[in-house]
Design goal:
There is one protein chain. 28% of the residues lie in helices and 26% in strands. The chain is an alpha+beta fold. The longest helix is centred in the N-terminal third of the chain and has 21 residues, at 73-93. The strands form 5 sheets. It has a 4-stranded antiparallel sheet. Strands 3-6-14 form a 3-stranded antiparallel sheet, with no helix packed on it. The chain is built from 7 helices and 14 strands.
Length: 269
């Protein structure tokens, strides 16, 4: 039984478009073409870039230049324009299905970053979020994100990134206390709404954290710590018990995160 090919469907054309879409995401491009000198990307550094559309066009032209037999100029220009436009759309749509508008305009700016750091190894589930504005109100689709080596991460966005946020995986939430020059302390949060504040707001107070034991055998004095917390975070602490949920509000530590505000790079840099 032979398969039925839908009307207007051209498997050869689709294969070319898919290959060009990967090319526009810089897949298969030798790394030394992207970073010609390793001094441009030293250890523990991040470098932002904006893809030069003329450079990408030349890259696609080079791909068409290997065609055999060569097409006429008019035919080549028509095929190049059509295939490149579809490749551009597909390169974005492939990774942006979670966005409300997965298919962008046919021509868009590409920007991104290269991160060379031990963070890439330490946080294999690193969350990357790029925004087109410094207030982080409009998130950009990710065209490509790939670990090129154990310590090197490449990410490309559909659009010009103005703010980048890197976060530990959400599963890294944990209980924790703060180390100081004189010991351990815990910054407190409100656990009720008395006084007009919200649960979780900074209470503007902290308490000492005492441990028993020594070395690796040190144990947190939970009961003592909870009693020290209650007067600072609950208006009715004298008549109602300090609960385990309220203790958790105090002890939970968010995941590590870092944000960068990016001035628009010059094309080709």
């Amino acid at each position: 039984m032979s398969a039925t090919v839908p009307a207007g469907h051209d498997p050869d054309r689709d294969q070319v478009v898919e290959w060009l879409s990967r090319l526009r995401r810089l897949e298969g491009v030798p790394f030394n073409y992207l970073v010609p000198d390793t001094a441009m990307l030293p250890p523990e550094s991040i470098r932002f870039f904006r893809a030069d559309e003329s450079w990408l066009a030349a890259l696609v032209d080079g791909a068409f230049g290997v065609a055999t037999p060569p097409a006429t100029d008019e035919t080549a220009d028509r095929l190049r324009g059509s295939a490149t436009a579809h490749a551009t759309e597909r390169s974005v749509a492939a990774r942006s299905l979670r966005f409300d508008r997965p298919t962008p305009e046919k021509h868009f700016a590409q920007s991104g970053f290269l991160l060379r750091s031990s963070v890439v190894v330490a946080w294999p589930g690193l969350e990357v979020h790029g925004f087109s504005d410094a207030l982080a109100t409009h998130e950009l689709p990710i065209v490509r994100i790939e670990r090129l080596s154990p310590t090197l991460l490449l990410c490309i966005f559909a659009g010009v990134v103005a703010r980048l946020e890197l976060r530990e995986p959400a599963e890294a939430l944990h209980f924790g206390v703060d180390s100081t020059d004189v010991g351990w302390r815990k910054e407190l949060r409100f656990v009720d709404t008395a006084g007009g504040h919200a649960v979780g707001d900074d209470a503007g107070a902290s308490v000492d954290v005492r441990l028993r034991g020594s070395g690796a055998e040190r144990v947190l004095r939970v009961d003592e710590l909870a009693r020290a917390m209650a007067p600072h975070v609950r208006a009715d602490h004298a008549v109602a018990p300090f609960t385990s949920a309220e203790f958790a509000v105090q002890m939970i530590e968010d995941v590590g995160a870092v944000a960068f505000e990016v001035s628009e790079p010059r094309p080709g840099t």
